[in-house]
Amino acid sequence: MNSARIILAFIRKDFLAEKSYRLSFALGALATIGNLAVFYFIGRLFGAGLAPHLAPFGTDYFGYVFAAMAFFGYIGTGAGSYAGRLRQEQTQGTLEAALSTPLGIIPMLAAMSAWNFLFATFELAVYALAGIFIFDLRFPAANWPAAALVFFLSAACFAALGIISACFVMLFKRGNPVAWVLNNFEGLLGGVYFPAAVLPGWLAAVSGALPVTYAVRAFQLAVHKGAGLTELKGDLLVLAVFDLLLIPASVWLFGLAVTRARKAGTLGEY
Amino acid sequence: MRIEALNIKKVFPAPVFSGITPLRALDGLNLAAGPGVTGLEGPNGSGKTTLFKVLAGILEPDGGKVTVDGQTAGARRLRGLAAFCPPNPRSFYYRLSVLENLRFFGALAGLSPARSAEGARALGARLGLCAADLERRFDRLSEGNMQKVSLIRAFSRRAPVVLLDEPFHALDEKACAGLVALIAETGRAATVLLSSHSPALLAAAADRTFRLEAGRATAP
């Protein structure tokens, strides 16, 4: 079966479904700019007061949080969208219908969140345009090839975490510990809204076990300080190890979860 | 193509700590069908839908096996061979048009958009679904028309095995007649299994009919 055709079919279907909720579509884009404005004014309020912790990144608070939110907004799509899409298909009753066709696990995983990634790309463009034209941000030192590599490794890692999260939805429908951790602790411990160096020692240790910490730090350094492969090699290596472990494990676990649901007869349940 | 269910067992486990006993849906069921049209009758809860889902590769049986032309066929192979029409329409995207739904599910079954659209128009005409209904959003259709869309999705795959669970549900008399003719035509090239609670429609559509009771089939 042609995987590209499957992916396009999912994108078209999800786009048409999203488009049918017109107001939500427009509000989504506006919310992005609204979120940025909040941090812009926080940055103005404190000015350079947070500079000691931000010094390694060579930027002010708003520059830091802007880059982290744009980056995390995209890679976080992988973490949240698989479980979200799967849950939506369960409640609509379309999951069993889709899985009664010859659709394989890998094309399904590639297709299921394709629309979410496309929309996240659109949001990223909104971020970039808002950053440049509304908030007057510039990244003169940025090393974009290095940032792209961090981006790619991080997006793959978070997509794998998202697929593992979707396994819980496949088996238990509601109650998803992976999503709970991702939603509640990644932002707090991963250095998205403030550098992880602000955290006390014991929390910093937990932060060190999360891929988001390495991803955000490496991206910030590449974008603000122009860090290259030499400076980023430690973070890149950790992200690559996470990818090597999590990607095959997530696909395997998702296949097991689908088989288990077929056995238990719960594909059509929600 | 001949499809056989051999000693198929399927038990749905009860939720943990629920105090409910597991549901034995299929209890060593044996059945052979095809080529041609085979009917299934039986009371509610006799295991017809579970059998269809096992034959369609949607459900994995707990025991026994399914063979196709004498060869054991796993769930994955069955999903490639069989087109299934479920007993209710809650398997479509309600906010998408009929054509968009058929285009999407057609793509999952390997059909091009053109072939899906062509199948929708040709089969729609035979079942009494007009061109305007094909453009309409799925949730704005009547229940009978939703059922027609479900039938079109199954027939347009042109699969060697077609499984129709309660296909006459909610259809008017004219659509039932159109469906009987379509089933007869499909049965010349494919193996068709269908269930119904109407003895008259089963007699009109099927060459022979099995009776299911308590998860077992009785030969005609």
Task: Write a structural description.
- The complex is a heterodimer of chains A (270) and B (220).
- Chain A is mainly α and 270 residues long.
- Chain A contains twelve helices and no strands.
- In chain A, 79% of the residues lie in helices and 0% in strands.
- Chain A has helices at 3-19, 22-46, 51-54, 61-92, 94-98, 105-112, 114-134, 144-172, 177-189, 201-207, 211-225, 229-264.
- Chain B is α/β, with parallel strands linked by helices.
- Chain B has a single domain (3-218), classed as P-loop containing nucleotide triphosphate hydrolases (Rossmann fold), CATH 3.40.50.300.
- Helices cover 38% and strands 26% of the residues of chain B.
- In chain B, strand 9 (208-213) and strand 10 (216-218) form a beta hairpin.
- At the A-B interface, helix 1, helix 5 and helix 12 of A face helix 2 and helix 3 of B.
